[in-house]
C-alpha cells in the first residue's frame, strides 16, 4: 500500500484549529518559539499563507490545498492516480473545522459585508484560493503600495501557476510611478495582463465571474462580497467595457528606462485609431506639447505632410 502524500502531525492539526478559532490569522511576531517548527510545516503544506507587509499568517481553505496536491499527482502519471483520488479525504477533519469556524462578517441576502482592511484581505485570500480560474480587477489610485509589491507579485505567481488568468486595469498615473511600473513588469512576465484607463473608476475585483468585491464605504476599510448572479454579470460586462477602452502598456520597457520608446509607440497606435492630439494627451496623461513632439517625429518617419495623411498611412502600415 502506498504511503500517504500528506501526513500532518496532531500538533499541526491542532495549531491550525487554534488559528481558525482566533479569526483565521496569526501575527508573525506572536509565534512562540516552541511552535515555530509546526508553523513551518503548515506553511510548507500550504495551509498557512504569509502576508509579510501585514506581518501575519492567514489560514487557507484545506480544499484548495487538497486540490493542488491532487493536480500535482495527476500530472505525475497514471502511477499516482490512486493516491490522487484519496487526497480530498486527507484533510476532512480540518475542512470540517474550517466550515464550522466563526466568520467575521454580516450577511445581507446575496451580499456579505466584511469590516476592516485586514479582514477584507483575509477573505479575498480565501476566495482566490477557492476560485482560481480568473481574476478581473480595477485598481484606482495610480501608484500601488510599494511595501506590498513582493506580496502582490508572489500571490500573482501562485495564481498563475495554478492555471488562473489575471487582468487588471490601473489609472494612467500608474505609468509615472517607478515602483508600480517595476511591479507591473514583474507581473506581466508571469503572464498577467495590465492596462491603464484614462477615466475615473472605482475599485472592483471579480473572481471566476462568481463573486464580486466592491468597496462598502468611502474609505475602502470595508468591502461587500456580492454573489448575486445578475449583479456579478452586470459588473463583469462593465469591466469588459473598461478593458476595451483601456490601453496596453509596455511595462518592461518602462521599467528598463525605455519609457520614451514605449510612449512613442502608444502615441502612434492611438493616432492610427483616429484620436486627436488633445485626446491622446488626455488618454496617456501627457501634455499636448509632449504629444505634439511625438507626432512631429512620426510625420518625419512617414514623410506625411498633414495629420490626416499620417493617420491614414499608419493605419495602412498596421493593416499590412
Top-tier CATH class of the largest domain: Alpha Beta
List low-pLDDT spans: 104-109
Largest sheet: 9 strands, mixed
From the 3D structure, determine the CATH topology of the largest domain.
Endonuclease, Chain A
List the total number of helices. Answer: 14
The proportion of strand residues reads: 15-25%
Superfamily at the CATH H level of the largest domain?
Answer: Endonuclease Chain A
Q: What is the second-level CATH architecture of the largest domain?
A: 2-Layer Sandwich
Number of strands: 12
Tell me the series of helices and strands, N- to C-terminal. Answer: HEHEEHHHEEHEHEHEEEEHEHHHHH
Separation, N- and C-terminal Cα atoms? 63 Å
Shape: elongated
Spatial ordering of strands, largest sheet: 4-5-11-10-9-6-7-8-12
What's the gyration radius in Å? 24 Å
Mean pLDDT: 83
The number of domains: 3
Précis, in short:
By secondary structure, the chain is of the alpha+beta class. It is built from 14 helices and twelve strands. The chain has three domains: 1-102, Arc Repressor Mutant, subunit A, CATH 1.10.10; 103-256, Endonuclease Chain A (Endonuclease, Chain A); 258-319, Winged helix-like DNA-binding domain superfamily/Winged helix DNA-binding domain (Arc Repressor Mutant, subunit A, Orthogonal Bundle), CATH 1.10.10.10.
Verbal overview:
The chain is an alpha+beta fold and 320 residues long. The protein folds into three domains: 1-102, Arc Repressor Mutant, subunit A (Orthogonal Bundle), CATH 1.10.10; 103-256, Endonuclease, Chain A, CATH 3.30.870.10; 258-319, Orthogonal Bundle (Arc Repressor Mutant, subunit A). 51% of the residues lie in helices and 17% in strands. It has a nine-stranded mixed beta sheet, with helices on both faces. Strands 1-3-2 form a three-stranded antiparallel beta sheet. The protein is elongated. Residues 104-109 have low confidence and may be disordered.
Amino acid at each position: 500500500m502506498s504511503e500517504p502524500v500528506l501526513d500532518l502531525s496532531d500538533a499541526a492539526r491542532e495549531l491550525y484549529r487554534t488559528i481558525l478559532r482566533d479569526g483565521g490569522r496569526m501575527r508573525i511576531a506572536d509565534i512562540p518559539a516552541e511552535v515555530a517548527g509546526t508553523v513551518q510545516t503548515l506553511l510548507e503544506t500550504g495551509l498557512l499563507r504569509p502576508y509579510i507587509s501585514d506581518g501575519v499568517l492567514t489560514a487557507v481553505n484545506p480544499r484548495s490545498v487538497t486540490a493542488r496536491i491532487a493536480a500535482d499527482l495527476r500530472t505525475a502519471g497514471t502511477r499516482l492516480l490512486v493516491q490522487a483520488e484519496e487526497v480530498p479525504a486527507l484533510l476532512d477533519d480540518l475542512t470540517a473545522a474550517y466550515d464550522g469556524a466563526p466568520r467575521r462578517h454580516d450577511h445581507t441576502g446575496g451580499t456579505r459585508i466584511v469590516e476592516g482592511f485586514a479582514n477584507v484581505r483575509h477573505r479575498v485570500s480565501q476566495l482566490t484560493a477557492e476560485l482560481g480560474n480568473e481574476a478581473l480587477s480595477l485598481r484606482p489610485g495610480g501608484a500601488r503600495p510599494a511595501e506590498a509589491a513582493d506580496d502582490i507579485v508572489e500571490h500573482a505567481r501562485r495564481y498563475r501557476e495554478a492555471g488562473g488568468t489575471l487582468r487588471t486595469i490601473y489609472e494612467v498615473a500608474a505609468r509615472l510611478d517607478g515602483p508600480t511600473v517595476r511591479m507591473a513588469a514583474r507581473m506581466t512576465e508571469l503572464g498577467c495582463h495590465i492596462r491603464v484607463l484614462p477615466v475615473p473608476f472605482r475599485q472592483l475585483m471579480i473572481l471566476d465571474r462568481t463573486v464580486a468585491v466592491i468597496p462598502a464605504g468611502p474609505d475602502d476599510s470595508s468591502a461587500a462580497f456580492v454573489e448575486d448572479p445578475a449583479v456579478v454579470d452586470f459588473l463583469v460586462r462593465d469591466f469588459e467595457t473598461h478593458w476595451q477602452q483601456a490601453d496596453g502598456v509596455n511595462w518592461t520597457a518602462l521599467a528598463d528606462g525605455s519609457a520614451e520608446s514605449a510612449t512613442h509607440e502608444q502615441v502612434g497606435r492611438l493616432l492610427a485609431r483616429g484620436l486627436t492630439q488633445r485626446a491622446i494627451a488626455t488618454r496617456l496623461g501627457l501634455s499636448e506639447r509632449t504629444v505634439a513632439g511625438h507626432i512631429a517625429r512620426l510625420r518625419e518617419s512617414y514623410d506625411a505632410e498633414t495629420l490626416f495623411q499620417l493617420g491614414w498611412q499608419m493605419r495602412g502600415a498596421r493593416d499590412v
